[in-house]
Amino acid sequence: MSNDLSRWCATIAASDRPTYHAIADAIADDIQAGRLRAQQKLPPLRALARSLGVNFSTAARGYAEAAQRGLIDGRTGSGSYVRGEIKSDPVRRASTVGPIDMSMNMPPEPGSAALRARLREGFASLGAGYDIYDLLRYQEFGGARRDREAGAAWMARRLPNADPANILVCPGAHSALLGLSASLLRAGDTLACEAISYPGMKGIAAHLGIRPVGLPADRDGLDPDAFAALCAADPPKALYINPTLNNPTTATLPAERRAAIAEIALRYGVPIIEDDPYGCLPKQRLAPIATYAPELTFHVAGLSKVLGAGLRIGYLVTPNVRYTARVSSTMATLSVMANPAMIQLATRWIEDGTVRAATLAIREESMARQQLAARVLAGIDYRSQPEAFHLWLPVPAPWNRIELATRLQQHGIAAVVSDAFAMRAPAPEAVRICLGGTASREDCHRHLEIIHDAIKHLPAMAAGGYGEPFVDYQVGRNTA
Predict the structure, then answer these.
(1) Quick one: which H or E segment has residue 444?
(2) Residue 204 shares a structural domain with residue 287
(3) Domain span at residue 293?
(4) pLDDT mean over 199-211
(5) Strand pairing report for 79-82 and 100-101
(6) Residues whose CB is less than 8 angstroms from the CB of residue 321 and which lie 6 or more positions away in sequence, other chains included
(7) Residue 247: is its pLDDT beyond 80?
(8) What is the pTM of this model?
(9) How far apart are CA 345 and CA 348, in angstroms?
(10) Is residue 472 included in any domain, yes or no?
(11) Where is the HTH gntR-type domain (predicted)?
(12) Would you call 300 helix, strand, or coil by DSSP?
């Protein structure tokens, strides 16, 4: 391995190409000459960076370039290896050490071959037992009785008394939030929410002309006293809240705050939109706000964060039949219906335990990545929860959020700055980092190390001397 480093140092020093390209060139030359063999382990990135006299980010970018050329692979917890024939899932995308998107809040994709086979079998059997034209016709909005019962069964661990008659199967949770907002509010109405909140709701409010009122929150979530003060002065038309593993701050509202917020809402007659996409991930679940104020709470949950966003199936629990009919009519106008084939697939996966298995696998992988983050980011202030697959990173001075996000993007890491989530000015100095998606655990580890090293360097040091292009960061891009 030391011979490789010595040889690469000489080759790279003689190259007129950018350092990261020269690293990949050196690897390619050694493979072509037979000096590197299939499945041979490459030098660790930090050893490479020390030998070349460059920073970790540049060395990582060199391996990323080699991976993009198909020369090497990364292995979780092991390192980087020369590519070669290995037994693997033939459909599985090969793990790389290349750039990954840490802006989209997607669940990590579990490596279980059994789970992947189970999901593939579900798609393969799609339509079995149905007249195919039944899946191609218009359907009544909200799903058939069996589909609503499946939704109730899936949410039973959180909402044990959910009535299938008051459950609507929707084309994704975001669609449910849009339909609810259009049903409960009008242009000019106020919507209470946390000052830092889900950007999708920010977009919905802008589209409908609703005025969001951002309320103070801390590490435990929304401040009930602030909500009470707003209601006493000028009650909002509704409250939007994401109480478990909040997107983006990961705050989880304690039981006493859930009860207090429900009591205030009941006192002033303020409907609650409870957005609960991550509610099934924590091992120790807290009762939803809907259990404290069922007559005023609209509970929204979907399968995007436990299976994948492509399924586009969400469930909306309304307080009563009257609201169910009202919201159903509005949502049918906005989106017609959810995809019948995807409804059938979701129902089957709930009934046969696939959703439960996927949830457990995603929870396990999320916990492993959070443990990884705790080790790599030791000494850096950030907020997260053990079962979350994102984290909230306050940006330490002298960095600011735009400078840090721009620097990270230069190294292939897309993060989302706080402006995308801010319901009121000024936005805090923070970014959201996501640990899921298609990236392997090894990819995640490598990019967390780049984030660590970037924060530990002053902006002036990080910006100069590496011969890498400046890339503008677009605020608000990819914020699911």
Answers:
(1) helix 441-456
(2) yes
(3) 127-355
(4) 95
(5) unpaired
(6) 165, 166
(7) yes
(8) 0.79
(9) 5
(10) no
(11) 17-85
(12) strand
